Amino acid sequence: MIALKHILVATDFSEPSAAALEYGRHFARAFGATLHVLHIAENVIARFGAEAYPMILPDLQRDVEEAAEKRLAATIDDDDRRTLTVVPVVRTSAVPAAAIVEYAAQARVDLIIMGTHGRGAVAHLFVGSVAERVVRAAPCPVLTVHHPEREFIAPDALVAVARQ
Question: Which residue from 9, 109, 136, 159 puts its CA 20 to 30 A from 30's CA?
Answer without folding.
Answer: 136
